Amino acid sequence: MCCADFDFDETYCLMSDCICERPLINRKAGEDPSIDKPYRADVDYCLSLSTIDAPPYNTLSTNCFRNCLEGNIGRTGTDGIYLNLLWHQYCGGTMSIPSIAPNDPLFILQATFLDR
């Protein structure tokens, strides 16, 4: 078990017998009706991009597979969150907090799926 609350990395509890009284891992998948799961068309769009990565090699890179898969750009051409980032938000709870999401076992399953 991992705690889902934190102040700083060094205070995050990773003990299975945690006595810090912080809430355990939680997920609230689909709880927010304004957040939907990624669509197949989003995946197809990313796969259609022939450029793997592009300068400046960060979240501002456009028309590249890496940034599309990460969820920083999408097929609609509008600002927002897509694919990987959208899935994190859809799962809610622990998965939607970037600094602690890697401690959720679902994170590893998702990353493995993306890497296959």
UniProtKB/TrEMBL annotation:
Domain of life (superkingdom): Eukaryota
Protein name in UniProt: WSC domain-containing protein
Protein's organism: Engystomops pustulosus (Tungara frog)
Lineage, uppermost ranks: Eukaryota, Metazoa, Chordata, Craniata, Vertebrata
